[in-house]
Design goal:
- By secondary structure, the chain is an all-alpha fold.
- The chain has four helices and no strands.
- The protein has one domain.
């Protein structure tokens, strides 16, 4: 499954290259249909990366006694569902979106 495989890659990257991972998706597919099996696989992959980033950031964040108390008392679960829908709704002119079109390269 894509989520499991992605999490395994993230673990290996954490051990061998400071957690750096490049994720590349070949273009040309219509993944806007959420029943599409490729769309679901992509979503699982993205969700696993986001979940890994959130866990890594939380683990590396400096904590004080007050921070630890808040973390213990309030367990906030990160919302990772629907990342594909969020990415697909992005304004493609947004500076945070990088699209590499091999046909244009």
């Amino acid at each position: 499954d894509y989520a499991w495989a992605t999490k395994e890659v993230l673990k290996i990257a954490e051990r061998h290259c400071q957690g750096r991972v490049v994720s590349v998706l070949e273009g040309g597919y219509d993944v806007r249909d959420e029943t599409n099996s490729l769309a679901k696989s992509i979503e699982s992959h993205i969700d696993a990366i986001v979940e890994g980033v959130l866990e890594s950031a939380a683990a590396k964040a400096p904590t004080t006694t007050a921070d630890q108390q808040v973390k213990t008392e309030v367990k906030v679960e990160p919302k990772v569902e629907g990342r594909l829908a969020q990415l697909l709704s992005q304004n493609l002119n947004d500076a945070s979106v990088v699209i590499v079109d091999q046909a244009m390269a």
